Amino acid sequence: MAMIAIVVLGPSGLATGRRIAAALPGAELHGFAPRVAEADVAFDETAEHLRDLFRTGQPIIGVCAAGVLIRSLAPLLADKHSEPPVVAVAEDGRVAVPLLGGHHGANDLAGRIAEILDGVAAVTTAGDRRFGLALDAPPPGWRVANEGAVKPVTAALLAGEAVGLSVEAAEEDCGWLRKAPFTESATPTAIARQGGGGCHVLVTDRSAAPDPQTLVLHPATLALGIGCERHAPPEEVIGLARRCLDESGLAPQSVACVVSIALKAAEPAIHALAAELGVPARFFDAATLKAEAPRLANPSDLVFRETGCHGVAEGAALAAAGAAGRLVLPKIRSARATCAIAQSPHIIDPEAIGRARGRLAIVGIGPGDAAARTPEATAALKAATDLVGYRLYLDLLGDLTRGKPLHGYDLGEETARVRVALALAAAGREVALVCSGDAGIYAMGSLVYEQIERSGDPDWERVDIVGIPGISAMQAAAARIGAPLGHDFCAISLSDLLTPWDVIEQRLKAAAAGDFVVAFYNPVSQRRRTQLATAREILLAARPAETPVVLARNLGREGERVTVTTLDSLDPEMVDMLTLVLIGSSATRAVPRPDGGAWVYTPRGYDRKNGDSA
Question: Which residue, among 270, 271, 308, 274, has the nearest Cα to 288 in the 3D structure?
């Protein structure tokens, strides 16, 4: 399910909204800006905001009158099969009413809210009220093959007519179905003879021909095992899997997961197949697959020498299906891949088998304030199972850390942070490595790749890594004061902890000779007090003494201060570890503001382009 938006319109509903948000993973508080403070997302136009959420398929919990939601969303209502869940909750939390998307999660969501708030879920859907089940919204692990048959079958049940139930798979997982008065094992013909309409429910993992009177439900009892050569074409693997399912007469909707050996966790073809089928990919270590050797139909010593197990496709499928599972399709080959299918007597829970391909998001959170954090960064932080970073940066995340394991470190422990983040991701976790500013600018981004290269650990190499940009300190400082980075610029760290001072000095001289605007990171520390003074002298030799200098401290945090001085007046005592220093080029100008301050900008040359010499 997408991120849940809890919409609060006034202060009287804020406490209820916060209680729901605290108990629902993947929820964020949306507040009407003129009346609600401290929300994750602020908005000014209620109706348009609700419509935007609805259009993007985001579940909505409105802590407000139901009429507000109805009037706002009414113009968008068209197809009940595609609408997201919408639930109205009384401001005092006593009642939760699913208004839309009842069978797309709204009924269940209302029930969860009622439990959280010790209230009542006002569910009105007929099947839910009479029998406690919704045939078009089965539990996890079930799929409806033909939604068109839901209505006649449900209508027959509500009318008291006999409806047959045939179970060919997942017998012990059908308890939810047996809440309704089905006539078990009765065929449609037999039901018709009893005076019924011939309606029927078939539970099967086989492919079944569509029938308007027979509702087909597919339980996720199949595991699709895949072995492939490195960089096998995705279309070949997808084609092989489709052929195997077709020739076996098995339903793609009953595939619970695509499985393979851990050393294939980064293979694009396997993930493409999983995406094609709409299921997760899971991976087993060689020892787990080796243990399946007695059950393999085609054990191979060659495969053992290459992988440490006697069969990848068959072994992975059987490992996923469990001890009671059986191989229903032994290994089939294509030019560069193999496929096997195993069947479990129970629904397979992908979260309980193997491990996912781990993901490491290297997240830049900007200066620190939530308003300066990109939506992409916020989404990655919310999706993460684990957060790793400098303790101060984790503290800046506020409620985004709620319910997540935090792996906090002190300054100087950068390598430890990265190694822990990679180890967690290699174990199948979804990890966010939190950095201030932009993660690729004087932050953890480069260290991640350095550690992967140096370690030679194949598990780290297989982690899915994504870099998520943030607003860098120099960008934030420039935006606060004007546009000093309007022309060519460079960034130089004055810390000689990792870079020799003679190298830094060489770069300072090059920046001076090139007349670049210069952003100084790490300008001073408690023990480094001379480098900034030396840098100032190098630049003074190449540009005017009155060159504007911007000092930006605590950007995006409490105590933010941005001041302007000149290169000649720059004193290292004005600067501390939390300050970014921006030194203009010879063309940079400081323009007085009406409030007594100054705008600082570096012209790019539009006056020459436009022939304006003024």
Answer: 308
Question: Tokens representing 128?
Answer: 């839910």
How many angstroms separate the CA atoms of 63 and 14, rounded? Answer: 8
Residue 328 · residue 310 · CB < 8 Å: no
Residue 534 is given by DSSP the state H
Give the separation between CA 273 and CA 227, rounded to whole angstroms.
12
What's the pLDDT tens digit per position in 344-362? 999 999 999 999 999 999 9
Helix pair angle (46-55, 66-73), 10° resolution: 70
Quick one: DSSP state of residue 59?
Answer: -
Q: How far is CA 170 from CA 129, 348, 588, in A?
A: 26, 10, 73
Structure confidence by residue, pLDDT tens digits, 112-166: 999 999 988 887 665 555 556 778 778 899 999 998 888 888 888 888 888 889 9
Q: How far is CA 470 from the centre of its chain?
A: 16
Could you tell me if 314 and 292 are in contact, meaning their C-beta atoms sit under 8 angstroms apart?
Answer: yes
Rounded to whole angstroms, the Cα distance separating 508 from 504 reads 6
Phi, psi of 346 (to 5 degrees): -120, 165
Rounded to 5°, angle at Cα 236 from 249 and 351? 65
Q: Which conformational region is residue 322 in: left (phi greater than 0), alpha (psi within -120 to 50 degrees), or beta?
A: left
Three-state DSSP class for 370? helix
Structure tokens at 495: 């810390």
Does residue 468 sit in helix, strand or coil?
Answer: strand
Residue 285 · residue 308 · CB < 8 Å: no
Q: What is the pTM of this model?
A: 0.77
Q: Is 301 helix (H, G, I), strand (E, B) or coil?
A: helix
pLDDT at 227 over 70: yes
